[in-house]
Amino acid sequence: MRIAIVGAGIAGLACADGLSAGGHEVALFDKGRGPGGRMSTRRVQTPLGEASFDHGAQYFTARDPQFAGRVAAWADAGVVAPWPAASPDAWVGSPSMNAPVRAMAARHNVRWNAQVRALERGETWRLTGAAMDESGFDAVVLAVPAEQVAPLAGRLDPVLAAEAAGTRSEPCWTMMAAFAERLVGSEDVIRDRGAIGWAARNSSKPMRTGPESWVVQASPDWSRDHLEDDRAEVQAELVNELSRAIGCALPTPIALDAHRWRYARSGCQGAGYLWNACLKIGACGDWLIGPRVEDAWTSGSKFALSISK
Fold first, then answer.
1. pTM score
2. Which of 11, 101, 140, 258 lies 20 to 30 angstroms, CA to CA, from 57?
């Protein structure tokens, strides 16, 4: 079949790997500017050089044997490395979190800056959006957060849309700050302190260069309560939270930014993947298993295997 995959994150690319291996022709469409999604890395110029921030997923684990094999291959290729500061079995992309996503995407036909806004079903599937109109697909796979699946599936597959609509993600405000000096008196990782769900010295990860850089991710509750707050207010409050967590005043940041993830930590629908064999539309992603990177990869791989048999 000729198959369109909407979303080129870990789930969509794992699905593309499996479908291509099964003999299908695959094209991926992603609204992002490049590889990453929730494994993105933000780079910011500072007076002390470029600072990098893994402002989405901070690390991942590999407990499933098949995914562990994939991670071992990534390690051999030099695109992931262990990060024991987070946990004994933690891995990160190297030299940035999006490195394994970039490596996967390089093997496929991915169209970036392509936001699919509507699907149409005739003799074949048609995808439309801003400055895009692609048709002639035998099947469509939605590898995006549940909140984006529901409006796309809509009237075409009400059951799929309902499953997605009933599986909600947690939001997350993420603050990124770089400093001219190392923050003393702090470990590389901070968990569950006040408004902070997670904070990490990003510059402590393998192969990171540049000045002292920190990523602070607010807790789901705090993020929900402040979801529509002004970005500058969020930056200031999370800098204060980091100062309180470390127990001392912070130097003035040489770079400061914040990013609002509306769909950060996925829900758990539980099916693994969804597939309507009559209409040839389906979905894969972490929201169908759980919030880990490994879950996204597993969902995409299982989906591909199921329809390539």
1. 0.93
2. 140
